[in-house]
Design goal:
Radius of gyration: 26 Å
Low-confidence stretches: 372-381
Order of helices and strands: EHHEEHEEEEHEHHHEEHH
Helix content: 25-40%
Number of helices: 9
Number of strands: 10
Strand content: 5-15%
Shape: globular
Mean pLDDT: 84
Length: 381
């Protein structure tokens, strides 16, 4: 496979990435941030409800493949952006579906980057999928490969010949099976902290976090349901990974295939009707976004819970574990309680914790008829 840049993509200037995670400072005290929205390319004209004007010419195949590989495209965009600006850009982002059921990215970026650079990086970013060609189904309906216990592989139901193995199929690839790009619609905006505008854009990032994808992409008309059905039908025959069982329909044996594998039946999220190809990670946070380690975040969560419990008179003092010695239990140790006792004690402990925390949450709720004021929900679009 070629590692050269595609001729149809503009070149990008690159710089050595510095260790800093913040952008320029303006007027000696302002460090503005950015809010950026990236979308997929167009697959055909759509109406206001997201359904295609002409479903016959709407490119469902490309829409399905773009959705499956959207997360890889986003990762490549971050790599390119960091190389162009020359510092370790940090972000908090969410991946959400549009009305047309195509994924798009909302992201907050620490530091200011020119709008021209954002547009240039977006136009020059692409992801090549170096997989075997899967444009035409080899098996369909009742004519599907069968598992041969003698050879330990899937074989053709008529000839008995083993299917092409994954590594062999990849070796024969001469051009990418698919190329993913962003669309032309790029929205970027500079934002200052502690402003009304900052609260509104935080709402964009947080308003969907407690909702399932099915609640976000909800078909309210027959036309929308037909559109989602067409997209799901294409996703059901679009491989999502080298281990996807859909590869068997194209005459290729995926990695990890065994006698329990059913051709064309993959449990990946990309093939579900409720997700319509959206990636499993809908919230993307860079490692240095908060400047804290995993241990710091764990300590923050513990402190938050303790404060909540203390507000209703439940005090949980910090245990001193410095004098404890941890060692593995030797087989046959008579001082170890039975496993059933340990499990029941752990369950009882968790039930107690849950009841105490629920009590603290109920006490923190406002009186009936009043609603808490937050910076995100009332201002979210």
């Amino acid at each position: 496979r070629s590692t050269k840049r595609r001729q149809d993509a503009p070149d990008l200037p690159t710089r050595k990435v510095a260790k800093t995670t913040v952008g320029r400072e303006f007027a000696g005290r302002f460090r503005p941030s950015m809010f950026v929205t990236l979308t997929c390319d167009t697959y055909g004209r759509v109406r206001e409800d997201g359904t295609p004007v002409d479903s016959g010419s709407y490119d469902y195949r490309r829409a399905a493949r773009d959705a499956v590989h959207f997360s890889s495209l986003v990762d490549r965009w971050w790599q390119n952006l960091r190389r162009v600006v020359g510092w370790d850009v940090q972000y908090f982002a969410t991946v959400e579906p549009q009305k047309r059921a195509a994924p798009h990215l909302h992201t907050a970026i620490r530091g200011a980057i020119s709008h021209e650079v954002i547009r240039l990086v977006t136009a020059a970013t692409y992801h090549q999928v170096w997989w075997p060609n899967h444009d035409r189904l080899v098996y369909d309906g009742d004519q599907i490969p069968v598992w041969d216990f003698r050879t330990g592989s899937f074989v053709d139901p008529d000839t008995g010949r083993p299917l092409t193995g994954w590594y062999q199929a990849v070796e024969e690839v001469e051009e990418p099976a698919h190329v993913v790009r962003f669309g032309r619609q790029v929205h970027s905006k500079g934002i200052l902290g502690d402003t009304e505008e900052a609260g509104r854009h935080i709402g964009y990032l947080t308003k969907y976090l407690t909702k399932s994808t099915g609640e976000v992409v909800e078909a309210t008309s027959i036309r929308q349901r037909d559109h989602h059905d067409r997209l799901h039908a294409e996703l059901s025959i679009t491989p999502c990974s080298p281990r996807c069982a859909v590869w068997l329909l194209y005459g290729i044996q995926p990695l990890g295939a065994n006698a329990k594998t059913t051709p064309g039946r993959c449990k990946g999220r990309a093939h579900r009707r409720s997700t319509l190809g959206l990636p499993g990670r809908r919230v993307l946070v860079s490692r240095k976004w908060s400047g804290k380690s995993l241990a710091d975040h764990k300590a923050d969560r513990k402190r938050f819970v303790r404060d909540m419990l203390a507000s209703v008179g439940i005090h949980k003092p910090e245990r001193d574990t410095t004098r404890l010695i941890w060692r593995k239990v030797a087989p046959g140790d008579q001082q170890v309680p039975p496993r059933a006792h340990l499990l029941m004690r752990a369950i009882a402990e968790r039930i107690t914790w849950r009841a105490e925390y629920d009590r603290a949450l109920l006490a923190a709720q406002p009186p009936p008829g009043q609603h808490p004021q937050t910076s995100a929900t009332p201002l979210a679009a």
